[in-house]
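agent> fetching stored inputs for the pyridoxal-5'-phosphate docking request
agent> found them:
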Amino acid sequence: MSSANTDKHLIYLDNAATSWPKPPEVAAAMAAYLAESGGNPGRSGHRLSIAAGRVVLEAREAVASLFNVDDPFRVIFTLNATHALNTALFGLLQPGDRAVTTAMEHNSIMRPLRELERRGVEVVVIPCDTAGFVDVDRFQHELAQGARVACFQHASNVSGTIQPLELLVTAARAAGSYTVVDAAQTAGVLPIDVTATDIDLLAFTGHKGLQGPPGTGGLVLGPSFDPETLQPLVRGGTGSRSEFEEHPNMLPDRFEAGTPNGVGLAGLAAAIDVLTKRTVRRVRAEEQDLTARLQLALAAIPGVRIYGPLDPSLRTAVLAIRIENVAQDEVGLILDEEFGVLTRVGLHCAPAAHRTLGTFPDGAVRLSLGYSTSPDDVDRTIEAIHHIATCAPHPPNGLDAVGKHLPSASEKPL
Amino acid sequence: MSPSLPFSLGVVVFHTTSAAIKADKVLRQANLSTKLVPTPRHLSSDCGLAIRFSWTDLERIVGILQGNSVETAGYHEL
Ligand SMILES: Cc1ncc(COP(=O)(O)O)c(C=O)c1O
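agent> prediction call returned; pasting tokens
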């Protein structure tokens, strides 16, 4: 282990950026892939190539079953959610088309859409309330004006706000728009049924809630989505139809050119196996309890402001907070250096979301719990934040009594 | 195991290598003794992997692959 993480009591609350630590099964599967099945999947007919191809199929089937799609070839592997969202948006939208999105989106949606806008696509951004929920009436109203694509996140990487997915998909379907759902923050965190919800395109990443390695992710094509309506982003070698210079149309090859990340997919398959055994529902229940505990305790600390929904069932295990009278980057630094609590401070690649929440341009401190967060981690984080808030130079709300009480880091606050 | 020759072999070819590998998996789960092989060059095929099998198993194989929605690009007797 490197010196960065040998300190005892490291509390990793940056799972919304990437989950850590990964289950040991993930590293084991990746090591085994490199040692035992290191051929190029689907390219050559020899045993190592076939072994690698089997690992990729296993990963594809694991993802298909997790999101409830019958045909594993409707799972297209990409580098990450960003790559999947770019595939969806650039593949569906042409100059003159209209796209509807929300004011909570990550730059992995906003930036492709702004580029498409420059090329002549009309982009409509639906406002959200201060808790991050999209205005469903406005959303429906704009879709009714005609839109080729409705593109939105399942949950926010800043405030954890969970959008009403079924409602939004149903509205888009009724209006005849394709749905592109960004599940970067919810894959492996909330149950997602692509078939029952009738989503057209679901983008996910492997390295967050799924507990897999970076460099894995994908685009899931819903059962009623016609793949021919989506133009591939990348064309090249597939190991099939090699006699032709035109890119093939068959799934998954239509959207997968170039050597896949076999070693990463071996890790992803192992991660999903661990997750499926533990079950997404159980992981969600545990994370929701811990988040509720954290939220309740932080809400009671004077000078701490929490953003996003109050109801823990309407948020993922992501909390954005600010401590009054302390620079937010300073909070992040103190949490790391003095308390071993690792968070992410700033704008979280989501300026639109911070504008909606009212935290632009200063940003916020994001605490994101995960698979391996313990109740003790949560309690020690509460203590740390209590300490920082009560040590703030100007005690907020004139609460001098609180300001004078400066607990040591080991003292239980509430 | 008898019989030895003459019994004829067949190959089933696919549009994608992903389909070939999936076919191999479901056939093995059904305990059929099939084998993934490079596609014989004389069969102009979409993909470099094919499955070789005993021609007497043809019907079962067609049934299993159809039952598992594995798309094929044709069956050939060798
Ligand atoms: C809401 C949201 N969408 C998209 C992404 C992009 O994911 P990735 O960086 O894995 O492409 C992230 C995370 O970075 C995210 O939080």
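agent> quick read of the result: Residues 24-278 of chain A form a domain with the Aspartate Aminotransferase; domain 2 fold (CATH 3.40.640.10).
agent> awaiting further instructions
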